[in-house]
Known about the structure:
The complex is a heterodimer of chains A (about 180) and B (about 500). With about 180 residues, chain A is mostly helical. Chain A has 6 helices and no strands. Chain A has helices at about 1-25, 40-70, 75-90, 105-125, 125-140, 145-170. With about 500 residues, chain B is mainly alpha-helical. Helix content of chain B is about 75%, strand content about 0%. The interface between A and B is large, with 79 and 85 residues.
Amino acid sequence: MRILRGDVITGAVITIVGLVYYIATFSIRETSDIVTPRTFPAIVGVALIVLGLFLAGQALYKGRKAAEAGDRDGAAASAGDASDDSSSAGTAAGVVLDAPEDPPSKKVVIQFALFFVYLAILIPVGFLLSTAAFLMALTSIYAPAKWIRNLTFSVLFAVIIYVAFVYGLAVYLPVGILG
Amino acid sequence: MNTLVDLGGGFVSALEPASLAFALLGVLLGTVVGVLPGIGPISAIAILIPVSFGMEPVHGLILLCGIYYGSMYGGSITATLIKTPGEVASAVTAIEGYEMARRGRGKAALATAAIGSFLAGTLAIVGLTFLSPVLVKLANVFGATEYFLLMATALLLASTMSAGSRAKALISIFIGLAVGLVGLDFQTGLPRQTFGIDLLSDGIDFTIFAMALFAIPEAIRNLALGRGAKEEIQSFGDDKWMTKQDWQRSAMPWARGSVLGFIIGILPGVGPSLASFMSYIMEKRVSKRKEEFGHGAIEGVAGPEAANNAGVGGAMIPLFSLGIPGSATTALLLFVFTMYGLQPGPLIFRDETGLIWTIIASMYIGNVALIILNLPLVGVFVKLLKLPKEILFSAILVLVVIGAYAIQFSLFGLMLLGIFGIIGYLMEKGGIPLAPSILALVLVPLLEDNFRRMLQISGGSFMPLITRPVSLSIIILMVLGIVGPIIFRWWVRRRALLADVSVA
């Protein structure tokens, strides 16, 4: 049932995104052409709304059907559900792939937060220092005991990449406070 | 005859030391990237686009094409030895290949994948060589109507023929379209969907979007998983290479996979991933040893691997001759072409004959290089699998950031990268496939432009869609292509149902 609830949320989010996108098209100036600059964005907005509603509705409908069947016979319902899922995934002929593991949300948020800090300091602080710090932080969260290896990797990787890009490929990376 | 002369000319320049070096470097880098778990051709090409800025167009394109098919091959090594496919196309190889490796047949699995990839890849390039000039001739009668239709077909096929929920694939396409429409309207110069942010009027850079969607969610997910999720690497040192029986069992799957993969590859909007899935299903259907499937059937490696490499060659055909990408990866390649100021399609075969044939010739060379390099070097590539995850994925994040910085040299570009990384992560979490939105983002300017021109020429009428013979034929094919599979599926399901009833 978890997947179905997920689809309801996904559908709702998509609908809201579509709505915001559609409202934003009102500020596009109209022209007298047959296809105005607004036509395509408006179509996209409406399509997102419709698809979002469809996804949520489909999940609710399936959920209710499964619940009704569950009242009658739990085992049968789960079997029916499974076959339903596999056919919709195009795996009816027996190709079953392992779903990737889902990491804990808290850790994902931390990783993203670190990533954004790196993005924000890259230009003012400079590539070398910020990259070494970012790599050190990430690897230390993962394997704190191996700090010597982490430090060596962080510093070496930052320096090698910097030299390779700036001197080898003429892609100038920010120097920041070292400059 | 002309084709052979052109191809010969292509070989002459592709065999120049510099071109040769880039072809070899491309397949080598591609294999390395393909081997690394969790990074597929899309991230690899996107990360390397900034690197290719300063290169000669022909070298940059040879390199990136090499990376594309090299990574397809590398993915099969990862799939076989740790069951973590680097990209979707190798996902089915992970089923049979891994089982073979567990049973001490890892070398045979790798060999059948490599030889199948080589044969199918080469056949597909032969197809590319001789079919492209034909399509180019056909494309000369194409107008805005036909181009609009072809691109709409590509998007429709990308949603109907992908694995998983169709509604979600469609959502992915419309997200790509929504992102692609941000910025100044190219006909009137009016700002659209910029939400009052001036910096958005240049639009959202395609490379940033592709890297954000493909590399960041995967890296963050792996880093957040932490230790514990340690994969078991299958060893294969003492295994035997393919036996005579293996050759016999692989031959037909290679042949079937090549043909199937090539045909699917040519279809707009359908990439090699579907080819490998369909090949697997087909091999399982026709096999006399159905019970071996799931327990290391060599046919289940040979067929899909041949199919996905044939699919790569096939997918290049609409890209080169019509300028219409058939998959997310070829969409990236199209972007690289335009970055160099080149427009794939009929014009490139007329104006840049030397360049396009050099690239095609380099693909023959790259394929040969792959098989020569890879079978002996497989032991070296396997060492890459032992690279600690935190090192690998934190390094990828840094490379992605450099890529985004090299495109815009601005904090705004970096922030877009981060924001789309979050969006990509949420899309994956919601089960929305990422590849269709990349394709949609590349196609939307062309789609809209041709749509407008079609209606301007006809004065607002949709009639040209059915009155022009070429466009009518495309519509008929499109309807057959979309309705056909639905009827086929229904038919299969009905028969399967009846079979169940009779068993009961």
